[in-house]
Write a structure and sequence with these properties.
seven-stranded mixed sheet, 757 residues, homodimer, globular
Chain lengths: 757, 757
C-alpha cells in the first residue's frame, strides 16, 4: 500500500530479485491508518516546496563574508537567520553564551637548520574568486585551542600521528622526545595528533595537508579543479574533545554570563604542546630537509621527494600565541509548538559558523534547514498542526568545539532529558548518496524516510540508490547478500564531529546525522577557498541535493512530530548491539592470538632472522597473553534485550492491525512518555572512564580517533588499551545500561499489550 | 646425522618448535652412506674456496666497460672468461652464433602540442662514477626489437599497459586507436606493453620509469642513494618472447653461420609498433600535458602532478630507426668430463652480456659462476672426480632475447635431450634471502642444499632464514602453519626472464634459478648507473652474498654430479601439480561466479544507479556464463601421478636403508637413464597453442605477463582468455603429459624395487 501511495516508489519495483520494502501492518510506523493518510498528504505538500533557487540565495548571503565565532558577520548571519525564521512565521530567538575561543596573535614556522626557510602560513587570494580576497576579515591559518608556545627542535615525520605510527617509530628506534613532529592530516581527527605526540614527549606539532590525501594527487587543484592548492591550509580545532566538547571553562554546564568558570590553566581540553597547520607548499622544504630512515612505504605522500623520518637534521622553530579572551556565541532557535504533545520535542540543527566563508561547511547544510523552516511556515498557514513541538536550531561555534550546541544542551539538559524525542543533525551536503548514521532505535524509521525521497540524478529512491551502491561495493559475498536481502540498510553509529554529540552522548537523545555526498571530492575544507564560487563550480551546483536534504530532513522531522506512537524500533538496536558484543569478544580473542603469535615468533628468532643490518629494527618485546574476560553478563544482557525487543515488536504488530485504531487511544500518551526515555536508558550518569561527560554506553567518539566511533566504548577501548582490569569493570556497566533499556522496553511492551489486548 | 655433519646446522637446532629437517634414510638423497661421506668432504672443501676478493676483482674487470652484444668489450669479456676457465684447468671454448640484434640509429620523442618539449633520451654521466662517462661505448636508451617507425598522435596514459588497464579504459570510454600510449614500467614484463597496445590499435608506445615504482618515492636517488635518478632510463628488450625467445630469424634452430633464416619482415617476435623507453624527467612534461579523466587512484604515480588519462591535448611525435644487421654472439662453455657417467650432464649458466656496464645485471651472478669454476679447478687438482659431466656456460645475448642460451640449446637440442640432468641458472645477486625457483622434482634436493649454506648476516642456514621470513610474512595462519611444519619450503615455478627458459620450457630439462636478494632495493636496472661504483656502494658491498651464491650453486652442481641415484623427488611434484589443478578449477568457478554476479548487477541496475553523471562510465555488457569443463582427466592424472610418486618414494626409502648399498649397484645406471628423462616427459612435442616452441605442460611464461609464470599454461590461459573450446582441448593434453610422467615414474619405481627387493 505504501509503495503505491508514494509517488516515486514505483521505480523501485523494477527489480524483483531485490528485497522489497517490508510491509508493516500500518502504512507509516507509529501511525494509525487514518493518521498516516493525513500525514502523507502533508508530507507530499511539504516536499514540493523546497527550491534550489532559495538555497542558492541563502548560500550566497550566508557565505558572502568570513563568519567565524566572534566575527561581525557571524553575528550578522545569526540575526539574518533569526529574521528569516520570523519571516517564515516561526517563533524564534537568539540565545547567547560566552566561551573561551582563542584566535591567533602570533604564528611562526621556520626551518632554522640545515638551511633556512620561513613558512608563508598564508593562503593567497585567487583571481576570479571574489571572496578569497577578504583578507582583513579572514581568520589566519591556525589550530584553535593550541596552547601558546615557542619551541625550537629537531623535526620528526610521524605519518598520520596516530598511536600505530608511534609503534612503528619505536621499531625504527626513533623517539620524538624533545622533538617537533610533523604529521599529515587524515588517519584520525586532527586533535588526536598533538595529543598523541605530547604523550610521546614531543614539544611541538605541525599538521600539513599532503597532496596524496588532499591535493594534486587526488585531482586538479583549485581554481582548475576542486582540490587543495599548494598554499591551501586546513584550519581546525585541536581541543581534546574526546574528553569533553564545548567551552573548556564550563564543562557540563551552559556557558551563560554568570556561569562558574575554570581558569584557562585548569581546562583539561587545551593541547599540551603548540600546534600549527601548514600547507604542502610550506611543508615540502621541511620534509625535504629530513634525513634518517626512509619513511615506511605507506607513510609516503605525493610530494616529489623521498620521505624520510628524521630526526633532523631539519630543525624547526614553532611559535604560537593566541588571544584567549571570551567570545560571544549566537545560537538561533525557532519553535513550532506541538498541538497535542507540546512537551515532546523533535529537534533539528545545523551550525551556521564557519572557519572562513564556509559555503560547503556549513552553509550547504544550513541552507536546507532554512528551507525546511520556510516550508513549515507555509504548511502552518495551510493548517498543518504537528502533534509535537518542533525546534529548529542554527548553532554557532560548531567549528571550534561544538560550542553552540554543547552549551545549549548543557544549559537545557534537564528539560531535554524530559522532553527530547530525537535530534536530527546535518552539517555539510553535496552530490551523491544519502549518508545515514545515528541511533539504531531509529534505523527502521529513517530507512522508511529514505524510501520516500527521490534521488535527483537517477530518479530512483535514495534508498534504492544506496542499496545498489551497497551491492556494488560489498567486499564479501555475505555483505552483498545482506545488502540485497535485509529489509533495511544498516545505518552507521555516531562518533563525533558535529553537533549531535551533546544530544546523543551527553544527555542520551536518539539522534540522526544525515547528508548527501560521495560523488564530488574536494580539498577546500576549512580554507578560504570553501566559498560560493567553489561550491557553485564544483559541488551541488544546481542545489538539487540541497533540496533533497531539505526533503529528507523535513519529512523525517514531520513524521516524528506527527506519529501517534513514537516510531522507535528495538529489534534493530538489539541485533546491532549483539554485533558489537561479538566484535569486542572477537577483539579480545584476536589480541590474545596476536600476542601469542608475536611471543612465539620472538622465541623462534623471527625478528633477528629478518632484521636487515643496514636498516635495523628494534625487536618487539614479549608480552603477557591477555586474560579471558567474563562476557557472560554482556551476552545475557543482549539476549534479554533481544527478547524484550521482540515482545515489543509483536505487541506493535498487533496494535497496528485493523487500521491501528489502538494507536490513537489516549492511553498512547503514557506509552510515548515511556518510549521517549528509551535512549536515555542507554546512558550511565557517571559516564565513561576518565571522561564522565560521555554518558552513552553504546556510542562514543574514540579517545584515540576523535571523530571515529567506538561502540560499547567502555569495554572496547579498555581492550584496545590492554587495560584488562578496566575491561572487566566495564562489562557489567554496559550490561547495566542494556538492562535498563530492556526494562524500559518490557514496560513499553506491557503498556502496548494493554492498549491492544 | 647430517645435521651434525654440517658445520653450521647446529644453529638451526635452537628452536625446536619449528619443523626439524627431515631424516631421510641416507645422509644425502641419492647417495649411499659411503658415497655421502666422501661427497660431504669434497663439498666442505669446496665451500671454503670462494673468496669475496676474487669476486670483487672479476666484477671490476667484467663491468669496466659497456659490453652489450656486438660491442668490442662483449667479445673481450668472452675471451677473458675463456682464459679464466682455462687458467682454472678446465676444458673450455667459445661457441659463436650470428643473430638479429637491432641497435638504435635514430630516436626522437617530442611533445608537439599543446606546447613543445623535446625529450632528452640521454643519461648524464655523474661525477664520482667513472664508468658513467663512457658515452662513446654506451648503447643509447632504447627498447630492442622495436619495429622502425615514425608516428605523431595524441597521447593516452595506460598505467602499466596490461590487459586489465585497457578494460578500465573501456569503462572510461577511452580508446587508444590511432594514439600513442605511455605506460609505466612494472606490472608486467615490458614487452607485453607494446604488444597489448598494438592489439588495441595504438600506433606507438612509450614506456617510462615512474618515481613511485622506481625513483625518489622508493628512496634516495643515485648517487645519494641506490634509486633511479630523474634522467635514468631502463633499456630492455620488447621482443615478443612469450611466442619464442632467441634469434627472431631462426626459431627452433641454432643461429649458426649457415642456418636457414627468415626475412626480418617474417619474424613474428618483432613489435608491431615503435617503442621507446624514457626517464621520468622526460615523461613529466608529457604526462602533465594530458587532460581527460583523472587517472584512477591506483594509476597515479609519484610525479608532482595530477595524472590524467587523455587522450590529448598532448600530441607526441615518436621516431625509432635501428641498424638491423646480424651481430655475433660469444657463448663461453667449459666442461669437466664425468668420470663414470660422462653422458649425464649438469649444466650451470649465467649470462655475461649487459645493457651497459651491468655490474649487478649480470656480473653479480657471473662472478660467482667463475669462482665456482676456480674452486672446481682446485678440487680437480686434489683428486676430485665427479661422476657426471659438468658444463659451465657464460651466455652472451641474454639481455636482448636469451639469445646465447636459446641458440646453444637449439643447436644442441638432441644431445641435451639425451644427456641433460639439470640446468642451474643465476642472473643477478644481492644481499638477503635465497630465492628458490625451479622444477618441483628438485624441490627437496635444493631445500637440502639450502640447509647446508650459511647466511652471511645472521649465521643461520639460508634455509632457516628463509623459513623464518616465511613465518614473518605469511598472510594467513594456514600459510604460517605450513611455513612452520612443512619439511621443505615451497619453491616458485619458473616463468621467464633468464636463460633457464630454453632448457626448461623448450627441451624439458629440470631447472633451478637461484639468487640472493630482498634486502637492497635499487633503481639502476638496465641503465648506465648499473656499474661497479653503484654495486660496491649500495649492494653486496663486501661480496659475502656473492660467496654464498657460489657456495650454494657449486654445492648443488657437485651434489647432482656425484649422486649414485639422480636425486629427483616426485611427491613434491605431484602435490604441487595437484595444487595447480585445483587452482585452474577454482579459476573457472570464480570466473563463472563473477560473470554471474556481474550479469545480475546489470539486471538490477547497479551500474546505472552508481554512475556519476559528471564522470560517467560505460556500463559493462552482459556475458554468457562460462560452461562447466570436464576436469576428470586432469584430476585422474594427478591421482595417478601421486600414486606413482608415492610408490617411487617407498622404493627409494627401502633402497636407502642399510647404508644404501643398493644405490651403488651397477644396475642403478639404467635407473638413472630412466630418471634423466623425467622432466622431458612433461613436455609435448607440438607445445602450447599458438606458441609451439614452448613445450612444457606445467610451466610457461604467461602470454600476457611475459616473465610471470603460468602453471598448467594451456588450460589456465585458455580459461583466462575465456576460450572454452581451447580449455576443453587442453585438459587432455596436460593429462597426457602427466600420464607420461606417471608411466616413467612407475618404470623407475619398478627398476628401483628390483634394485632393492
Amino acid at each position: 500500500m505504501r509503495l503505491t501511495a508514494s509517488p516515486i516508489a514505483a521505480s523501485a519495483l523494477g527489480v524483483l530479485v531485490l528485497a522489497a520494502a517490508p510491509s508493516p501492518a500500518g502504512d507509516l510506523r507509529g501511525y494509525s491508518a487514518d493518521a498516516a493518510k493525513v500525514e502523507r498528504e502533508w508530507e507530499t505538500k511539504f516536499r514540493a516546496i523546497p527550491s534550489p533557487d532559495s538555497l542558492r540565495e541563502y548560500m550566497r548571503h550566508l557565505a558572502a563574508r568570513p563568519h567565524h565565532v566572534g566575527s561581525p558577520y557571524d553575528k550578522a548571519n545569526a540575526e539574518w537567520i533569526l529574521a528569516k525564521f520570523k519571516s517564515f512565521g516561526l517563533d524564534a530567538q537568539i540565545e547567547t553564551f560566552d566561551v573561551l575561543f582563542p584566535t591567533p596573535k602570533e604564528r611562526v614556522v621556520e626551518l632554522v637548520a640545515p638551511t633556512k626557510f620561513v613558512a608563508k602560513l598564508q593562503e593567497p587570494p585567487l583571481p576570479g574568486d571574489p571572496t578569497s580576497g577578504q583578507q582583513a576579515e579572514q581568520l589566519p591559518t591556525y589550530n584553535a585551542y593550541s596552547v601558546d608556545g615557542d619551541v625550537t627542535a629537531s623535526l620528526v615525520y610521524v605519518n598520520y600521528g596516530v598511536p600505530a605510527d608511534y609503534e612503528r617509530l619505536e621499531r625504527l628506534g626513533i623517539s620524538v622526545k624533545g622533538a617537533i613532529v610533523i604529521a599529515r592530516y587524515f588517519g584520525s581527527w586532527r586533535g588526536i595528533k598533538p595529543k598523541v605526540a605530547a604523550e610521546h614527549g614531543a614539544i611541538g606539532c605541525l599538521i600539513y595537508s599532503d597532496p596524496r590525501d588532499d591535493g594534486y594527487t587526488q585531482g586538479d587543484v583549485y581554481p582548475h579543479g576542486p582540490w587543495r592548492p599548494r598554499d591551501g591550509v586546513q584550519r581546525g580545532s585541536v581541543m581534546d574533545m574526546p574528553v569533553y566538547p564545548g567551552d573548556p571553562l564550563t564543562p557540563g554546564v551552559g556557558a551563560t554570563k554568570d556561569a562558574k568558570r575554570l581558569a584557562t590553566a585548569e581546562a583539561q581540553t587545551i593541547t599540551k604542546i603548540p600546534v600549527l597547520p601548514i600547507s604542502y607548499g610550506d611543508a615540502q622544504p621541511l620534509l625535504a630537509a629530513l634525513a634518517g630512515p626512509t619513511a615506511p612505504d605507506e607513510w609516503r605522500g605525493g610530494l616529489g621527494i623521498t620521505y624520510h623520518v628524521g630526526p633532523g637534521p631539519a630543525k624547526v622553530h614553532l611559535r604560537v600565541k593566541s588571544d584567549w579572551s571570551l567570545k560571544p556565541l549566537y545560537d538561533v532557535i525557532a519553535r513550532i509548538p506541538g498541538a497535542s504533545a507540546p512537551d515532546e520535542w523533535i529537534i533539528r540543527g545545523n551550525h551556521h559558523d564557519a572557519w572562513v566563508n564556509g559555503a560547503e561547511d556549513p552553509i550547504s547544510g544550513q541552507a536546507p534547514l532554512l528551507e525546511e523552516a520556510r516550508a513549515y511556515g507555509e504548511l502552518l498557514k495551510q493548517g498543518w498542526k504537528p502533534r509535537r513541538t518542533i525546534v529548529y536550531a542554527a548553532w554557532d561555534g560548531e567549528e571550534p568545539a561544538l560550542l553552540g550546541s554543547t552549551e545549549w544542551v548543557e544549559a537545557h539538559a534537564d528539560e531535554l532529558a524530559h522532553k527530547a524525542v530525537a535530534y536530527l543533525n546535518s552539517d555539510t551536503n553535496g552530490r551523491g548518496y544519502l549518508s545515514l548514521a545515528g541511533s539504531h532505535t531509529l534505523e527502521k524509521f529513517i530507512n522508511d524516510v529514505a524510501r520516500d525521497i527521490e534521488d535527483p540524478e537517477t530518479k530512483l529512491t535514495v534508498w534504492k540508490r544506496n542499496q545498489l551502491r551497497a551491492v556494488a561495493t560489498a567486499r564479501t559475498s555475505e555483505a552483498r547478500d545482506e545488502a540485497r536481502r535485509r529489509a533495511d540498510l544498516r545505518i552507521g553509529a555516531l562518533g563525533s564531529g558535529s553537533d549531535y554529540t551533546p544530544f546523543l552522548q551527553h544527555v542520551g537523545i536518539a539522534s540522526l546525522n544525515l547528508g548527501y555526498g560521495g560523488e564530488d571530492g574536494g580539498g577546500i575544507y576549512h580554507s578560504i577557498y570553501d566559498d560560493f564560487k567553489w561550491y557553485t563550480t564544483f559541488d551541488d551546483t544546481s542545489f538539487v541535493y540541497g533540496r533533497a536534504l531539505a526533503q529528507t530532513m523535513g519529512t523525517a522531522v514531520m513524521r516524528l512530530a506527527g506519529a501517534d506512537l513514537l516510531p522507535y524500533d528495538f529489534t534493530g538496536l538489539a541485533e546491532t548491539v549483539g554485533r558489537y558484543a561479538r566484535e569486542v569478544e572477537k577483539l579480545l580473542k584476536d589480541t590474545q592470538d596476536s600476542v601469542r603469535e608475536q611471543n612465539r615468533q620472538i622465541d623462534e628468532g623471527v625478528f633477528s632472522a629478518t632484521n636487515d643490518p643496514r636498516e635495523p629494527l628494534v625487536p618487539p618485546a614479549k608480552e603477557a597473553i591477555p586474560p579471558y574476560l567474563n562476557f557472560a553478563e554482556l551476552d545475557n544482557a543482549v539476549d534479554a534485550l533481544t527478547r524484550a525487543a521482540d515482545r515489543y515488536d509483536k505487541a506493535l504488530a498487533k496494535a497496528e492491525s485493523n487500521g491501528g485504531a489502538a494507536l490513537a487511544k489516549p492511553e498512547a500518551k503514557a506509552l510515548n512518555a515511556t518510549l521517549l526515555q528509551s535512549e536515555r536508558a542507554l546512558t550511565i550518569a557517571d559516564g565513561l572512564p576518565r571522561r564522565p561527560w560521555y554518558r552513552h554506553q553504546v556510542y562514543a567518539p574514540g579517545f584515540y580517533t576523535g571523530y571515529g566511533v567506538k561502540t560499547l566504548p567502555g569495554v572496547r577501548e579498555a581492550i584496545e588499551q590492554k587495560n584488562w582490569k578496566e575491561a572487566d569493570a566495564q562489562i557489567p556497566r554496559v550490561a547495566r545500561a542494556l538492562g535498563a533499556e530492556t526494562d524500559l522496553i518490557n514496560r513499553a511492551a506491557e503498556q502496548l499489550e494493554k492498549l491492544a489486548p
